[in-house]
Amino acid sequence: MEMLYRSTRGAAGEVTASQAILQGLAPDGGLYVPVKLPKLAHTMREMADMTYKETAFEVLSLFLTDYTEDELRHCIDAAYDEKFDTEVIAPLVQADGAYYLELFHGATIAFKDMALSILPHLMTTAAKKNGIKDEIVILTATSGDTGKAALAGFADVPGTRIIVFYPKHGVSAIQERQMVTQKGANTSVIGITGNFDDAQTGVKKMFNDAELKEELAKNGFRFSSANSINIGRLVPQIVYYTYAYCKLLAEGHVRDGEKIHVTVPTGNFGNILAAYYAKKIGVPIDKLICASNTNKVLFDFFETGRYDRNREFVLTSSPSMDILISSNLERLIYHIAGDDCDVTREMMSKLANGGVYDITPEMKEALADFASGYATEENTASAIRTLYERTGYVIDPHTAVASYVYHGYAAEACDNTRTVIASTASPFKFARSVMAAIEGQKSEEEDFALIDRLSAIANVAQPPAITELRTAPVRHDTVCETADMKAEVSKILGL
Fold this sequence. Notes:
Elements: E1 4-7, E2 15-16, H1 17-23, E3 32-34, H2 44-47, H3 52-63, H4 69-79, E4 92-95, E5 98-102, H5 112-116, H6 119-129, E6 135-141, H7 145-154, E7 160-167, H8 173-180, E8 187-192, H9 196-207, H10 210-218, E9 221-224, H11 231-250, E10 260-265, H12 270-281, E11 285-292, H13 297-304, E12 306-308, H14 329-336, H15 341-354, E13 356-358, H16 361-365, E14 370-374, H17 377-391, H18 397-413, E15 419-423, H19 431-439, H20 447-458, H21 464-467, E16 478-480, H22 485-493
Parallel strand pairs: 5-15, 6-7, 6-9, 7-8, 8-16, 10-11, 10-15, 11-14
Antiparallel strand pairs: 1-2, 1-3, 4-5, 12-13
């Protein structure tokens, strides 16, 4: 069955998977969603012994139906190779009553590698399939991890350029160093003086700028996105939740068909939406536990049915979650509204104009699959310290937010259902926060000295992504005001 995609806002018509991937954002400003969600062709038992690559093919072939088998297998093989430091790709580690799904074994030691390793190959294949001669310009805003993973994925890929905007004072020192040292003749990195939401809003404006689009076309360029607004970024994330359940089954931790919970540290809502889709296609998932940090706009939404971005923006130790406009929530709104584009468009208009919308009681009932919670900075540090003291296992602050929320949910609900926690970044990426949590005080040591000590106490070798940073020269040092983002893009592209 051919899988087609439509915009959540309904005015863009139906397109194939490759067309949706090339466009990134739909022309009407909406996000592409499957017209109808598929079902897995094999049972969990039949998939239990599959490798990660084999599982990826099973899932991606359901969603990307206009790619041939050879094209899909080529993209998968090119993505999940020696760039990952383990053949397993996404190991499951049992610690203190939960299963941590380690999604940080790729080139940039964060979960974004799981999808951004394959997106460049899906996109360049899509361009060939659709006869696109223009150079594809990946335009992306990042709260910390997407930027580096996208840069690494697209660096020196023929027929592409990539421009990444990040909040100059809103990412960790290691995250920033990873981006500003990025190699590749086709890469550009720009810090902005605002926050992530400012960067994301600026990027969306450029995508919807008809005059800029015309100028790009005249000069042989077209925009696409590597953010999780791109369906080609979202679909590969469904794979690892499917794979996690299969591994639990293969190792005897669950019975065939026994449901599990999934807890995800959530900012832009893409990672937990992928778990929602995994459930919809047949993975036995019960609760989807949405974990927020102090910027708890999503927690408040699940509690009240009101989404309100009009609040103080807080910089935390889990910067990839410091987001007040969760773009991928639009896809969930569309689904719980009964796939109603008109309702979705109206709510997104209210969000854009007033920063607030309320869902209907019927839509709130459709959120029964979700639970939610949030962790303060003290809660986050406590979760890191407690897990280390009990087990010796070290997690980063984003994963710690999820760990704290999960244990709080389990205690309050008296629920001992087996739970997978999405472990979204290596602790080495946030060594300063992790060491402060474990030792109970901040250190004045420089970042690499802290990394050395973390490696010693965790008894884990430093990832290559960290060791390479020690001597990498800075290649990108541009900083601009939010209002000047378009001018910077024009300058880079010579428009």
